[in-house]
Design goal:
The complex is a heterodimer. Chain A is an alpha+beta fold. Chain A is built from 36 helices and 18 strands. The longest helix of chain B is centred in the C-terminal third of the chain and has 25 residues. The N and C termini of chain B lie far apart (about 55 Å). Classes of the chains: A alpha+beta, B alpha/beta. Chains A and B meet through helix 30, helix 31, helix 34, helix 35 and helix 36 of A and helix 6, helix 8 and helix 9 of B.
Amino acid sequence: MRSRASVLISLGLAGVWTAHAELRFNRDIRPILSENCFACHGPDKNTRMAGLRLDVREEAIAKGAIRPGDPLASKLLQRIRSPKPALRMPPISSHKALTERQKELLEQWIAQGAPYEPHWAYIRPERPPAPPGPEGVDYLVNKKLEERGLKPVGEADRRTLIRRLSFDLRGLPPSWEEVRAFVEDPDPKAYEKLVERYLASPAYGERMAVWWLDLVRYADTVGFHSDVPVSVHPYRDYVIRAFNSNKPFDVFTREQLGGDLLPGAGREQLVASAYNRLNRMTNEGGAQAKEYLAIYAADRVRTTGSVWLGSTVGCAECHDHKFDPFTARDFYQLKAFFADIEERGVYNGHGDFGPRIQTPPVGRESELERIESELAALRRQGEGKLAETEAALAQFADWLRARNTEWRRLRRGKVTAASGLQFRRTEEGAFLASGRMPSRDLHTVELELGRGRLTAVRIEALAPEELTGGDCSFLVTKVEGELVRGNKLIPLEFALGISDGVDPAHPARYALDGNDHTGWGANGGLRRNVEQAMFVLGKPLETRPGDRLRLRLKYEGWASRQVLGHFRVSVSGADFPELVPPAADFEHPVRLRTYFRAYTQGNAHWQALRALERRRQQLLDSGSECLVTRAAPPRLTRILPRGNWMDDSGEIVEPQVPHFLKPLSASGRPTRLDLANWLVDRDNPLTARVVVNRLWKMFFGTGISKTLDDLGSQGEPPVNPELLDWLAVEFMDSGWDIKHMVRTMVLSATYRRSSQPTPKLKEADPYNRYHARQAVTRLEAEFVRDTALAVSGLLNTKIGGPSAKPYQPEGYYRELNFPKREYVPDWNENQYRRGLYTHRQRTFPHPALIAFDATPREECTAERPVSNTPLQALVLLNDPSFVEAARVFAERILRNGGATVDERIDFAFREAFSRLPTAQERAILQRLYASQRAHFRRNRGAAGQLLTVGMARVGGDLDQRELAAWTGVSRALFNKHEFITRY
Amino acid sequence: MKIESPYLLTRRAFLGRASMGLGSLALASLVEPKLLALPPGVSGFPNFAPRAKRVIFLCMAGGPSHLELFDPKPELAKRHGQPMPESVTRGQQIAQLQGQELRILGPQHGFRRYGKCGLEASELLPHIGSIADEFCLIRSMQTEQINHDTAHTFMNTGTAIAGRPSMGAWITYGLGSEAEDLPGFVVLTSQGGGQDQPISARQWHCGFLPSKYQGVRFNSGAEPVSYVRNPKGVDREAQRELIQAVADLNRAQAEMMEDPEIATRIAQYELAFRMQMSVPDLVDLRNEPKHILEMYGVESVDGSYAANCLLARRLAERGVRFIHLYHRGWDHHGEIKQGLVTVTRLVDRPTAALVKDLAQRGLLEDTLIIWGGEFGRTPMAQGTGRDHHIKGFSMWLAGGGVKKGFTYGATDEFGYNAVEDPVHVHDLHATMLHLLGIDHTKLTYRFQGRDFRLTDVGGRVVRDILA
């Protein structure tokens, strides 16, 4: 049946038709009032004019602005229709103006009795009637389409469908094998199977993480001023794991906001709590702690408000919100939830950014858990068993002696210093310098090593007795070395650095981290006779007679530290080398007792404990640090008048949720955990809507309300409110199951539609807000990179771990300072990690990512802009990452793509686009191949140059000029619009 | 045919011809150049007749001392070494001098009079002094942020919160750019003469505005713009053939399906290719006469401030809308006396050369030049230097629409507080936009439900300095 409405729409009379329908306050009236009136007649009492507010019905009526049912008697109507410009609302100074249509709507609304509705987003969502599962989505979408007389297009072909799904769920293109298998799969459930397979793929978590990390503004550096690195990547890996294991969103929320407060919080929860520490931080000398504490706290409120509430709470930092009911008090009450986070306004310059824990390497978490549970069991068994008896002491001394004999002191050799500092050998086999100690230097230690096994090198920094000048604090910023065997140099690859830990801010592993800023050291002098560190090799080495050990100790710190002026070196061949005090130190009975206590206890039970602890420590030390939240007594939170941090006159507030939403019930001072629980309470009207709206955008191109970061009065009311609410309720009822929601969306017929509109649809719904067709979207920055790597075959699918450093233009960091930075791209398989892992330097994000609209992660981002610029073209054309991917792809074409030019073109095309080229496309590529081939034949050496872009080696057995010509063809494919577009 | 834009028709006609044998010609020469300049993101600007078409912002990063350069204070010399009156400093923000005794540091360099207007400025600035009759000095600048990072962010975006557009992005968003084959907003950096404080790419980021309005930072090395150079082994002709094949493939795609972005994509590749030629051309100084090079003190494009000033002129000639230079060398917490000698030697001559060179080419009248830092420096000593100071400092403006040989505003006897006609950063922005023909309250962008603008909720056009 062709409805009256659709006839009217096709006649272009839709506006007239809706004018006669029942007006809805939230849909039709609130946006007009919010945009034009609320700034002066709204929630903010400080800017309210004439004491009139129009956002509350009673007050508008009391002031005579509205007389329900009588537009002519309503002052609101009189003023907006006033013939006198001076009286007319909104005033000229506001730069706002109402259209005639808007005035009519207001008039009709008052005539209809001026009914108000609470703002839609603050009403608890209820489930509208719809069939369960994906059919529910289709039912609600189609209902809207029918209302508007729109007819959906048909389903996309399978090739388009698998590409779409693969990009959406994995951020990667499908392989040709996957495409073929799917296209040819006779199973009517083929698509469902595909969805399950992709949801189960590890790449799913990586894809989803890109979305979440933008929201929480995850980055690898602190962001202010010196923008030095800070280790939080275990949090990034936590996010990936959470999506892959389908952690329920309420748990995900609790762990991030209050993981440290959860009963029985483990490492996983602590790492999750890094969420609270992802704000930018400063270590600038002249910064004022109080000001920056205010900055960090405001950032947290803005972010949390945006991530979970989809609200612009940040607007209430200086004044009550102009459009939404958030008051300044609400802002500071939210801030008070975070007042217990242990932090400093201004951090020192040495890479210490507050509470953090050590985490195991990616993929070895369960191994660590096993060790820790064994340890706990052993500790329980051992309670009371450890006593300081003579026998235990003797046993302990034996143990120390045994460990000590594993170390072989190297006595023969010399130290040369770049500064000219002179060292002499002491009788004890140590090296002792005389003269003034510089703070920057390079010491080369060359020692006779001889035959044996080498697993670790120990450096003992000795007491400063004979030294002159300085307090003997030191900072070794880098330790590296090699085995010298005749003319051959065998590099020593140190996997671990372990020190006594007297100076916890400068553990030995910092001398291996490649950062000139950090190192192994001791502050304020050696507190004991010996300060020692050992550097453990990744693989044991067998040494031969005549071999020498060469160590380079670098001192590049700009801190007021010095070089090592008195030290000795020993080596071990033990499988688990252990740092123990030197024999001379513990043979003394008093010292032995001290060490005994220091090492806990010394009996067999203890040795078992110690062995486990050692394994645990080595596992942790080979992992990474992660910032975490640690609770401290809460700081006082005051309302800051006008947001001014210097003004202490404001009222003191306690943690509480925004006053117009369901209040939080907690005994005692509410905590971050209470806030988290409140956010994911079934009665919270915002969280579920915010999340499903953003998920919808991920799979359909535009949110149901397109303002992903503002569901408030100034945001767009949802074009399909029933759909939004149905999804929100489904999300909560499913137990906050993200995969369930993704499945529900992508299994819908709506998702599977073709993205090609009919002419009628293009006209009737140009922005595709009703989803009679799918959207066309450009791949996100990270996935542009991933797609090139995947098609070339270079992609490294490793998950997690420290961030990677792909090629970057030289000198890109030259404006960074304190310290100056040189970007050294990874020269190993890390070069080919997914874009998600690219090192995120907040003040200088990687230029290829930025070109494709990635954000600097300084502020919460719910939606990236999508641009189409010449810089994008330059990246795809000339960035070595893409050129290298193209030449490696070329090699694949030559090896696997058949023998003729046409076969190869077809192969390359289908690998890149999951389809065969048309005759026209084939002809274009034939021409290009011919011209590129001619170029590389004409220009001697050109092919060789092109084929050395990047670190990947190409087969020497292939014709270089041929390879270069196909590199040209590959580059053309990588630059084709289709390559970075999801249809 | 599905795409009806006349723009695309031009492209299609052109591509058709190019693939039929005109291939050896540069792609670009076949297209109406004006089509490729950066269009504004919003219509209706300028709102009124502009006095300036472009801006060259010479940012003296680190915070130049107004007390040695442009704001003579004999009182400081008299009270050198004495405690700073507490009545002035009580309750005020302090950066590195937190918790320290505050003593006055007398001016470390002498002043002399320059030009017909008799401007009193530093002996260290003979060249800038020689253009004293060209510029308008503001001695009453004020800002709100006392640390470098946030102060630059405030100076560039009108707020200390990250994620907002910088002024260059706002202006290109409002006005577009006339540069046919260069970005509309270009950033050049140099350093020397003091601690080179870091500068974040945030300072030229477009925030929530579309990415095409983002500033593009030029490098001094072999690759003036990231990725502008062809891969090794690929010459211009091979690259052209490749880009043409990409265009052909995209055109074939556009014929098969509905995706209006394809047309834009084709145009962007065209522009990219043009940039690959125009950028090297921009930095090729072979055609600059010797006397011009000497005037600036330039030997080559070496990343120096002098070279950047010359490039600024060349960018202005090519229609770039906003040219932002940063010279990082003014953060004189210590040894300010020698530090200023060093940095002014690098900055004084080229700055004056730029103004004179633009003037002799008739470009100064519609170019607005702004010179100054993110803040000034304290009258109080920090050892042998001065700390950051935000309550009063100096900047000057020259060119399009600004009074010449004019001084505006004043600080108190200590050079501490701007007491006469204070000019807030928002006011500077409002005035700059006004000179460009923009009502600063009208250039807005809707983000998170609010109409944001460069001047936030403030800003007043400083009419007294308009010519």
